[in-house]
Amino acid sequence: GGVSLTRSSLPALCLGQVLHAQNGVLPRPSIRAEPASVIPRGQTVTIVCQGPAGMDTFRLEKEGEVLYPDVKSLHETETQASFPIPASEDTAGLYRCLYYNGANWSERSEPLQLVVTDPQTPWDDSNSSGE
């Protein structure tokens, strides 16, 4: 027969991921925003999606819709993809990412809440409050 791995030969840390993989469920990727998840309008925010190595494709979803092109992984060693997004009123919302490993799509990441603020204008501070 084939080679069977005994559970005891695996480090305890990997066990959770191995059990997941056997069920066909891929570990969910992580998601973060750079430089921050609160961004002034007109700036560019980069959403970074990170998963295990050997990914084929990363996808970014905003509230369940795919608004951005999938990012293909060029090398098997790449574990993250960057989605630069110019911040506008439409940018705010909940983002999740997922990845494709050539056979299955992963679970979605935790939601990332992106907040777009009005840029600070110098004359907005104290003068606007009339007396």
TrEMBL record:
One GO biological process term: immune response-regulating signaling pathway
InterPro entries, A to Z: Ig-like_dom_sf, Ig-like_fold, Ig-like_Receptors_ImmuneReg
GO cellular component assignments: plasma membrane
Keyword Hydrolase: no
The entry's keywords: Disulfide bond, Immunoglobulin domain, Signal
Gene3D superfamilies per UniProt: Immunoglobulins (2.60.40.10)
Record carries keyword Signal: yes
Pfam families tied to this protein: Ig_2
Signal peptide (from-to): none
Transmembrane region(s): none
Listed name of the protein: Uncharacterized protein
Native organism: Ursus americanus (American black bear)
